[in-house]
Amino acid sequence: MSQLSDMDRTRLRWRARRGLLENDLMLTKYLDTYESALTDVDVSALTQLFELGDNELLDLLLARIEPVGVLDRPAVHAVLANIRAL
After folding, report:
1. Which of 4, 20, 23, 67 is least buried, going by the fewest C-beta atoms within 10 A?
2. How far apart are CA 12 and CA 20, in angstroms?
3. Integer angstrom CA distances of residue 20 from 24, 27, 45, 54
4. Count of domains observed in the chain
5. Helices 74-85 and 54-61 meet at what angle, rounded to 10?
6. C-alpha angle 82/7/75, rounded to 5°?
7. What is the Cα–Cα distance from 45 to 19, expressed in whole angstroms?
């Protein structure tokens, strides 16, 4: 587990900014809670989620759909579970 540098934290928060306010609020709350404990695996999972369109991401965050394909891996499920629990 490596520590995120200040620059890494800034980049991660910038990538979390989304076009939908709901996504922004949930991702910001997640980062506020877990940012200091994120592992490289968590950051990789978040990065994959950030690649999605806003509506698809919102559906995942709200558990309307579950991850499929390349997103269907334990790290993505763990990040989503933590976001949904907040």
Report:
1. 20
2. 17
3. 7, 11, 20, 6
4. 1
5. 70
6. 25
7. 20
Cα-only R_g, the chain: 12
61 domain-assigned: yes
Residue 1 lies in a domain: no
Q: Which of 19, 18, 65 is nearest to 30 (CA)?
A: 18
Going by pLDDT thresholds of 50, 70 and 90, the confidence category of residue 2 is: low
pLDDT of residue 13: 87
Return the amino acid letter for 10: T
Q: 32-73 pLDDT, tens per residue? A: 999 989 998 999 999 999 999 999 999 999 999 999 999 999
